[in-house]
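Raw record, unedited: Exocyst complex component
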Amino acid sequence: MGWRCSQNCNTLYITIMADNETLEFVTEHERILQEIESTDTACVGPTLRSIYDDQPNAHKRFMEKLDARIRNHDREIEKMCNFHHQGFVDAITELLKVRADSEKLMGQVTDTNRRLQDAGRDVTAQTEEVICCRIQQRNMATTVEKLQLCIPVLEMYSKLKEQLDSKRYYAALKTMEQLEKVYIPRVSQYRFCQIMAENLPRLREEIKEISMSDLKDFLESIRKHSDKVGETAMRQAQQHRTFNSAVAKQVHTGHYSKPVYSLSGRTHTHISNGLLTDDDAGDEEEADEEVLTAQDLVDFSPVYRCLHIYTVLGDRETFENYYRKQRKKQARLVLQPQANMHETVEGYRRYFNQIVGFFVVEDHILHATRGLVTRVFTDELWNMALSKIIAVLRTHSSYCDDPDLVLELKNLIVICADTLQGYGFPVNRLFDLLFEVRDQYNETLLKKWAVVFREIFESDNYSPIPVETEEEYKLVTSRFPFHDPEIEKQDFPKKLPMSQSVPQIYTQVKEFIYASLKFSESLHRSSTEIDDMLRKSTNLLLTRTLSSCLQNLIKKPHIGLTELVQIIINTTHLEQACKYLEEFITNITNVSPETVHTTRLYGLSTFKDARHAAEGEIYTKLNQKIDEFIQLADYEWSMAESDGRASGYLMDLINFLRSTFQVFTHLPNNNNDHASMSGKVAQTACMSACKHLSTSLMQMLLDTELKQISMGAIQQFNLDVMQCELFASSEPVPGFQGDTLQLAFIDLRQLLDLFMVWDWSTYLADYGQPNSKYLRVNPATALALLEKMKDTNKKNNIFSQFRKNDRDKQKLIETVVKQLRSLVNGMSS
């Protein structure tokens, strides 16, 4: 019983579980069927697939359920058909009735359609035409619209071409920029715009090349026109300096005017009341026409254009570097002088014009453009140029031997410096260079005046100046400061002591001072500095040039004693005129000679040295003349007896000396510092001549080539010496005391007396005593002459009779010779 209950419970459980499972399947199948009914046919597949994915045999149950659902729907359809069948039958019946009417209506419609087609055929054609017109109109409107977009592009491109053809490159670049940024993007879809866009970079490169070519042409042109630009700038600077000088004079007189410069380069003058002054109505216009600026002479548009072009193209730095590099090259070319520049002033002027023109252009570029060149660049360029200019001028000025050319060079340097200083360039080194040029100028002046002095000396007749009338006397004294009360008291005609060269030399010294003064003009130096420069250059003229010319003149062979005497007279008067030269310089510079550090003229020492040289030359020429007469001596050294009269050459020599010393009476002998000069010169010359004559006669006796001398020759020689003593005692030149002049022949006199008297015992006994009769006779001299007489005695037997009659005397001679040799040996030891 219990087993059955358990079995029944299990069965019940299974049945319940089966029913539950069946219920779940039914519910699931209902859901699937609802999905199939409500879902689109394309989405049924996934639903059906889910049936087969379930438990086995599930599809069978679904099919059963599906069949049941179909049967159910069929029953519902059948019910509905049955419900509407009678209405359907009625509708079919009515439809059949309508069929006939519809056919009739169809015929009418067909006929109406045919008639309508026939009637609307024209309208259709016209409509098609209207449609075509509408399409064309729409296309035209579209085309116009597109053309309106394209036409500005084409116009701008055409404008670009015109600008390129007219070389308006900067405007062309601006047009390109507008095309690229504004116009082409609007119609970039068109092929022609793409071609335009592709051409624009090429056009930019062409513009760069063309503008660079224009710049090169400009650089070549400016190199050629720098000369004209510099010439104009320097002329304006010179006019400005002249104007300033006039202003200074007006300020001196109480009228002041001030220059006013406009940017155009024009100059006006305003007086204190502010009104513009004109000499006449047309002066201002004429001045405006004459004043030219760099812009008037040079077309700078290529530089501006090229700068703007490269700036627009973003390549300004390349352009600046190229321009500066090329200008540096041109600067080096400008600074390179011509080989023969120093020969003419035009060479220097052209050189300075080019330099000034170059830097005037650079200054204009500096101020007219922003950053193309900088002040640092121009200063660097100027410093380089300044060093080169100074080196060139130093070299070429050293070749100049014309003072006028050096003066022109100085003026050009000053104008160049003033011009460039007006443009802001430092020019102190140029003014420092002027000191070197001044030295060169002084050197050329000295060389020129050396020629002038030589010509004056060569043309001088070295004789006192004859004056026939009062006018001639005044003419001479107007050229030379000569004042002599004694000569002024004399009647005409009369003679002035100096020769014609003296007033000429004095005049030329003044001309030299004037020439030196010319260099000091426009140097902005004080009167004291100018005075110092004039005195120093005048001192150089006196102490070097004139002194050298005088020394050379004195040494010339054709200058005789008379000329030398006149030169002494001339130098004395020139020396006295030095104080007037001092006054002359003082009057020019208005600097008092008492001013501290004032340089004095050294003319006194110059003329003293020249006079001493002339005096020495007088002594030398006198001695040379004496030597010439001595060379005419023709003694017969072996003669037995003398002729009883002096030799002819000696008498001629004495007569020459007398006439010569008479010339010395013309030497100046006035009451000044040189009062005793004439006497001293004459006495010195006379004493020198007598000493030289005595020495020459002594050398003649002691000549080593002379081997034998006879007693007759000694006697003849004694006669000649006596004539010399008579000349000395005749006082050929006044002022000698006692027998001072005769002492020149004392050596000869004592030697000849020793041999004529044959007083050897006295000589030997008193030798070395201060009061010896033959104190001036040297043992060596006596020995040499005695041996020559001894050799003559042996060869010619002159003393043969004497030796027979008096052999003791012969032994005495030999004894004297031995004793003289002993004295000579004692002196040498």
